[in-house]
Amino acid sequence: MDSESQKPAGNAPEWSVSDLSGALKRTIEDSFGFVRVRGEISGYRGPVSSGHVYFSLKDANAKIDAVIWKGVFARLKTRPQEGLEVIATGKITTFAGKSSYQIVIDSLEPAGIGALMALLDERRKRLAAEGLFAEERKRAIPYLPRVIGVVTSPTGAVIRDILHRLEDRFPRHVLVWPVRVQGETSAAEVANAITGFNALAEQGRIPRPDVLIVARGGGSLEDLMGFNEEVVVRAAADSRIPLVSAVGHETDWTLIDHAADLRAPTPTGAAEKVVPVRAELMASIADLARRHAGAMRRLSDRRRGDLRALARALPGPEAVLSGPRQRLDLAATRLAPALARNARAHEIQLQNVARRLAENSPRVRLARLRAELAGFGRVLAAARSNAVTAERTRIATERARIEVLDTRMRNALAQSLLRRRERSAQIAERGQRAFAQALAKRTERLASLWALIRSLGPAAVLARGYALIRDESGALVRGVAQAEPGRLLDVQVSDGHFGAIVAGGAGTSIGTGKVSRPQSRPARKEMPKTAQGDLF
User: Fold this and answer.
1) Contacts of residue 522, Cβ cutoff 8 Å, sequence gap at least 6
2) First to last CA, the chain
3) b/e code 113-128 from CB counts within 10 Å (16+ = b)
4) Sequence-separated (6 or more) residues with CB below 8 Å from residue 197
5) I want to staple 20 with a disulfide (CB 3.0 to 4.6 A). Which of 15, 112, 273, 532 is the partner?
6) CB neighbours (10 Å) of residue 508?
7) pLDDT grade for 237, boundaries at 50, 70 and 90
C-alpha cells in the first residue's frame, strides 16, 4: 500500500509558477480584451509618485482592482473621485506579483445623469465655498461697449445669430476667438480664450474688448460638460473684463453661469443685453434734447419775469438818498453844540491839570526836600559824634593789644632768627661740599665731551685729509653737478684755505691725464678775509 502511494498521480505536466501565471494572463487577456465595467470608485488617493493611479471598482457583491497609467490619466475628461459611480472602459489583465487580476482603464465617464448631477453639485458647492460665485465679485456690463469679444465656435449658428442681432440693435466691433464648444479639449480652449482676451493690451494693435460673451447652442448635459469644468469656471471668475454667459437654452444651467457677471438665456439674448437698440436710443436722446430745450426756454422766461419784478420793486435814486441826506443834516445841526461842550470839558480838564502842577512845582518840592535834608543833617551830626567816641575807645583798646602782641612777636622772631642762622650755617657747609663734588664731576664730563667734540669736529676731519669746498657765494659744493668748468672754488684744509678753478667737465679725473689750463682766466673775486688766497 505504501508503494502505491509513492506512484505518480498521472501523466499531467509540471508548471512553474511563472509559466502558470503567464498562461493565466494570456487566457484572461484573450477572453476579456475590451470590457466596459460599471461600479463605484473606492480607495482613491490620487496619483502616486510615478504618476499612475490605483483604486478599486466595486458594487454590492464584488470588487476589482483598477489602474490608470500616467499618460492616460492626463487625457481623461472625467477625473476619478471617491464614491463616484462610473463606467470604465479598458482590458482585464493579471498581476503575477500578487496573484490578482485588475482592469487597466483607457477611458472613464460618469454612470448616468444622476452621477453627473451629483458631480456637478459637489463641484458647485466647493467653488461657491471659495467665493467664486459671490455677488459682490460681479461687475456691471458697459452700457455701450466699443468692442465685444465672443468666445464660441466660428462655424455654428451661434455666432451668426449674435452678429445678426448686434447688427439689428447697434452695430459694434466684434472679435471672435474660435474654440471647440464640445469634446475633450473644449474646456481648455474656452479657458485659454478668456485668458487671452484679458491679456490683450488696452492700446495695442488688437483692441481689447469691453465685454466678453461665452456662447454655445443647446445640447444635452454631456454636451455642455465643457462649461462645467473647473478650469473654465476659474477663468471666468478671474476675468477682468465683464463676462456674459450664454450657454444652452433658457432651461440649461452650467457652472460658468454662476461665475459670470451676467447670464443670458440664449446667445441672442446675450447680444440684446450687451448693446441697446440704436433707434430707441436715438429717439430717447432726441426726446431728452427736446425736453431740455423746452425746460431752458421756460427757465429763461421765468427768470426774465422775476428780473422785471425785482426791477419794479427797486426804489429810485431820490428815495435811496433821502435818508442819508436827513442824517447828514441832523449831524450838522448837532455838531456846533457838541464842539462847544467838548471845548468846555477840555478847559475844565486843563484847569485841574494846572492845579496839580502848581501843587507839585519844583520850588515847592525843593523847599520840602531842604527841610527834610536839614533834619537828616542834625541826625547825622549826632550819629557822627557817637561814632567818633566809640571808635576812639576801640582804637585805644586795640593799640594796647597790638603793643602786647608786638612784644611777643619780637621775642619769637629773635628766637626764630637764631635758629635759622644756625641752620643756614649747616646748610651752607653741606652745599659747599656738594658743589665741590658736582663741580669735579661736571669738569671731568666736560673734558671728556670736549675730547669727543674735538675728535668729531671739522678740524679733526680736515686733519685726516678731507677738505671743504665752497663756491663764490660761500655755499658748500656737495656734488659734481655744482663743479662747472672754469668755476672758482675755495678749498679749506686743516691748516688753511686755497683757491681752485674747475678744469674740464663734470666727472673729469686728474689722477693720470693732464688738465688743460683754460685759455682765458676768469676775473678774480675777492675772497673772504679768513681765506688763504688764490694760489694762481
Assistant:
1) 486, 488, 501
2) 164
3) eebbebbbeebbeebe
4) 149, 151, 175, 177, 208, 209, 212, 239, 241
5) 15
6) 13
7) very high
